[in-house]
Amino acid sequence: MKKTISALKFAVCTVVISSFLACDKDFASVDSDVLGEDNTNFQTNKESLPILAYNKKLNSLQIDGLTSNLLGVFNDPAFGQTTASIITQVTPSTYSPNFGDNTVIDSVVITIPYYSRVTGLDDEGLNEYTISDSLYGNAEAPIKLTVFKNEYFLRDFDPSAPLGQAQYYYSKADGEINVTDNFALNGSSTINFDDHKYTTDTILKIEEFTPSAKRINLETKDEDGEITSTTNIAPAFRVKLDNTNFWESNIINQEDNDVLTSASAFQNYFRGLYFKAEAIGTDGQMLMLNLGSSDANITIYYSYSTTTGTGDNATTTTSNSTYTLSFSGKRLNTFINNYNLVTLPEGNSTEGDSKLYLKGTEGSMAIVDLFAGTSDYEGETMSTLDAFKHKHRIPLGKVNGEYTYKKDERGNYLLKRLINDAQLIIYEDEAMNTGGDEDFHKYDRIYAYDIANNIPLIDYSLDPISNTADPYNSVIVHLGQRRENDENGQAKYKIRITEHLNNILLRDSTNTKVGLVLSTNVNSTSNARILNSDNDEVTNVPAASIITPRGTILHGTNDNVSEDVKMKLEVFFTEPK
Asked: Are residues 388 and 424 part of one domain?
């Protein structure tokens, strides 16, 4: 039998490598060209296993510590509207500054680079860009954008928790209080940031804002106003702030004050900015921004005078300098969700749901129980998981009514069936409204994770395809890309969980439920907490699922779902004849 298993392992290795090389195609059953049907003792087969999948409505998600942030208004044709705003601390680049004498602010400029990609060169040989990869909705539909000084102190530590525990902030996007203000939860109370905005001096107001993908030309001029140099930078939100008196009062005039001596002192004094997005009409657009970029800042351009000598020999010269504030520190993404096109269900964990709703921001996810309930196997009723193990392992018999199985010298179970490939087959709901855009879901990615341990499945770490520059084309063996027009004319996804199942069979790993979310970046595996979820089966969600405003609807596993589109687990295996 050992020789048989060794040969099987070689065959499986061949199959796995072949599947990696053709990961975007349907699995092809291994035939005699690989295993030599006429002169081997092996055969290949597949089985389709019933599973249970249901919805999990999400709320109170951690909204600080996100890698990127959303700003704007997005209308999902199947769900409704989401408005995203940002509250961020700012931090001085240097402390205890000396601004010199007779300081005069020339200008104040805020810069936040867009996520952009070079698409080619223009007639002058300069880069042309697109920002479409990080822009959601109608790029030409303006939104109202206002920037206020934030008056609410964002704490680093939670005073109600054990000493040294970080303060987390959570979403409250349900519009329960009202649908115009931006709210967050701190674990003990609800914060309305519109009650904590400084309205005496509005930092910036743009009545109709639309982002531009054009490069920005920066010119340097001499004392006579002549251009001395030109620098081109990638597309960015770059705006000159008109109210220089505000920055003179809040920054320059604080030169000798303790508030400019440390980050903590400054952030208690100047509590950050509130970027408030609002819809204009029924349309809009939303951007993903990286405020953590080293190029994201507020720069104060100023001049000062220096006098040397005394009396008639005194000489005064004027010099130019800058003072920079970065967006480091706490950053929160608040959301207002108006899901007027669908009611997100709580989920049926007993019978499964007919439709599964994956929605970003504060939305919804799906939970998959791979081995729910009981099954009849060889005239015996047992748990579905035990039946699966019994079909694949080599039994030794029963001890005290429980099956025992043969192990190798390392303690791993020996198998009579070796899994070549295992895939979750997930079909998109063809009736989902796409707003007339047939490519609306073209670049959607589904991310699967272990909800018990809040980690990716083992197949994630074994995926041979990693692309840090282009997340859409990364981890595509395990987390298969959306494919259109399969044999049923349907769009579907394939999530490979081969090693997840092998771990259960070989090493008796715990069968944990699998969470499915929509993700903007499958390369990101960081998590976000859920408030007061310690006794819930889901305590964390992938942070990348929070910073996508998009949603999708999938067919589930309830009995009323047609078999040809029902979510299923397909297992391809090799066994002796």
From this structure: yes
CA dist list (Å): 218 to 118, 233, 240, 291: 19, 8, 13, 21
Task: Write down the pLDDT at residue 577.
Answer: 79
Residue 127 tokens, joined: 């880069």
- Averaged over 404-425, what is the pLDDT? 96
For the stretch 176-190, what's the b/e string if a residue is b when 16 or more beta carbons lie within 10 angstroms of its beta carbon? eeeeebbbbbbeeee
Kindly report the CA angle at 378 between 375 and 381, in degrees rounded to 5? 35
DSSP-derived letter for residue 505 is H
Sorted by sequence, the CB contacts under 8 Å of residue 465 that are 6+ apart come out as: 20, 23, 473, 474, 475, 476, 477
How confident is the model over 366-411, as pLDDT tens digits? 999 999 999 888 888 999 999 999 999 999 999 998 899 999 999 9
Q: How far apart are CA 131 and CA 212, in angstroms?
A: 8
Percent of the chain with pLDDT over 90: 82
* C-alpha gyration radius of the chain: 29
pLDDT digits (tens, 9 = 90+) for 456-488: 999 999 999 999 999 999 999 999 999 997 777
Q: Are 156 and 330 in contact (CB under 8 A)?
A: yes
Name residues whose C-beta falls within 8 Å of residue 368's C-beta, 6 or more positions apart in sequence: 51, 52, 53, 424, 513, 514, 515, 516, 567
Q: How far apart are CA 334 and CA 86, in angstroms?
A: 6
List the domain range (segments joined by +) for residue 170.
80-338
Task: Return phi, psi of residue 576, to 5°.
Answer: -65, 150
Q: Establish if 70 belongs to a structural domain.
A: no
Burial of 474 (0-12, 13-18, 19+ CB in 10 A): middle
Same domain, 412 and 544: yes
Asked if residues 395 and 405 have their Cβ atoms less than 8 Å apart, the reply is yes
* pLDDT range class, residue 274, cuts 50, 70, 90: very high
Number of compact structural domains in the chain: 2
Residues 536 and 512 in one domain: yes
**Is 126 contained in some domain?**
yes
Q: Which residues contact 7 (CB under 8 A, 6 or more apart)?
A: 40, 42
> Which of 280, 315, 338 lies at the terminal end of a domain, its last residue?
338
